[in-house]
Write a structure and sequence with these properties.
By secondary structure, this protein is mostly helical. The protein contains five helices and no strands.
Length: 175
């Protein structure tokens, strides 16, 4: 029995009932990049690789070197003029390249936008989970505060009871 006259078993039972057990009631976090990659077709992978290549410094440098070489060869007639000065064939080749490159790059950008939407949804889910976890932790801490206050009040009661007994014992021995 405790100093306050409450059976120890009852106090422990009360604390056991108030004790929180944490459970996860949400889906696990998923990797958006893996989900998007698994669902891609061959054409989607090819357009992404194409867009990645066309958007690189290596492509720009190689394309620039080819264009400079084309112009030099056709201006100097080193080999033979297959595309004389206004470079109509070169313009046609660049126009065809642009005509095909733009839609392929747009397809890749649309896929990236879809992937970004998935990532935003996953971020929202993670933030919601974090909020739930934080609420759970805060509730647990509040419960611990209540238990600590309960323990402290019981200790104070026991301390007062002990002081009263000691005070009574001192008064009886001296009086």
């Amino acid at each position: 029995m405790s100093a306050a006259g409450i059976p120890e078993k009852t106090i422990m039972d009360k604390w056991q009932r108030r004790r929180l057990r944490h459970t996860h009631q949400h889906e696990p976090v998923s990797n958006v990049n893996l989900i998007a990659e698994k669902s891609m077709t061959f054409g989607e992978r090819a357009s992404d690789a194409f867009a990645e290549t066309m958007g690189s410094w290596i492509f720009i440098i190689v394309q620039s070197l080819i264009l400079v070489l084309w112009v030099i060869i056709n201006v100097t007639a080193y080999i033979r003029h297959w595309d004389p000065y206004p470079f109509i064939l070169l313009n046609l080749a660049l126009s065809l390249e642009a005509a095909y490159a733009a839609p392929i790059i747009m397809m890749s950008q649309n896929r990236q936008a879809d992937k970004d939407r998935l990532a935003a949804e996953e971020d929202y889910r993670i933030n919601t989970k974090a909020e739930e976890e934080l609420k759970s932790v805060m509730k647990h801490l509040e419960e611990q505060d209540e238990m600590m206050i309960d323990i402290l009040s019981r200790l104070e009661e026991q301390h007062k009871a002990l002081l009263d007994r000691l005070g009574d014992g001192d008064g009886a021995s001296t009086g």
